[in-house]
Write a structure and sequence with these properties.
mainly alpha; Ferritin; 65% helix; globular
């Protein structure tokens, strides 16, 4: 694998994570449990889509085939996406949304924080700008983990159920592959194995405050970030996300 190929795939992974998670959160717009949280989740969704645009724009530039960030977002099929399986999981209820967000935010914060030493100045600049938003995202999801976990018996039960169901998707976040290794060796991104202790420490810290039990998982789901597999949920997301572009190709607003 060449460095150019690895950089392109790496940017797709980050961009797709942000795009798909942003779309998932946008589904809460107008449907939040209370107005304040409706607005908060919509704003986080906008942050994610903005980050996706920057990352996919850079990926398209590196690809050198004349495509734009819009082409990458709207004109790829399911198996061409490189997001982790966690971010495509359905909202189900507010508890599932918060758990999914927290498990991803804890990873995303550490990842972007590590880019401070990246040799890729463009990616470093994107990360520095995004880190301010991601820091808030992590604080938001962490606080709600604690509120729901250490709240009523019903809220505790719902968020524990969501945690039990979604924890199986966290292994993919910090399991390095050939792309991650190439990026690390080039000094562009971190060695994911070095982020694992900090990630687990953050998870343990918040779960303890939330009086939640960390699930014991013997097997982790994977396959999203290397394009081997996606859940059926991604197909439904793309059917909605890409409808206008597919129905009216090359339409200009």
């Amino acid at each position: 694998m060449t460095l150019a190929d690895a950089k392109y795939q790496y940017l797709l992974r980050m961009g797709d994570n942000a795009l798909i998670l942003g779309h998932r959160l946008s589904e809460w717009c107008g449907h939040g449990p209370i107005l304040e949280q409706d607005i908060a989740m919509t704003n986080i969704a906008l942050d994610q889509v903005g980050q996706a645009r920057s990352l996919l724009q850079y990926a398209a530039q590196l690809e050198g085939k004349g495509r734009t960030e819009d082409d990458l977002a709207y004109k790829r099929d399911v198996m061409e996406y490189r997001n982790v399986l966690l971010v495509e999981q359905p909202n189900e209820d507010f508890a599932y949304t918060i758990v999914r967000q927290f498990l991803f935010d804890a990873f995303n914060f550490l990842l972007h924080k590590s880019f401070v030493n990246s040799k890729d100045e463009h990616l470093k600049a994107i990360a520095e700008k995004s880190l301010k938003e991601i820091t808030y995202h992590l604080r938001y999801s962490s606080e709600w983990m604690i509120r729901l976990g250490d709240g009523t018996a019903e809220s505790h039960q719902k968020i524990q159920t969501a945690l039990d169901d979604l924890f199986i998707y966290t292994g993919e976040l910090l399991t390095p592959d050939a792309v991650d290794q190439t990026i690390f060796e080039a000094g562009i991104g971190p060695d994911l194995t070095t982020l694992q202790p900090a990630y687990q420490a953050k998870i343990d810290e918040i779960l303890q405050q939330a009086t939640l039990q960390k699930p014991e998982v013997k097997y982790m789901q994977s396959g999203g970030k290397d394009g081997r597999m996606h859940t059926e949920y991604l197909g439904y997301i793309l059917a909605e996300l890409q409808f206008v572009q597919r129905a009216y190709p090359n339409m200009e607003w």
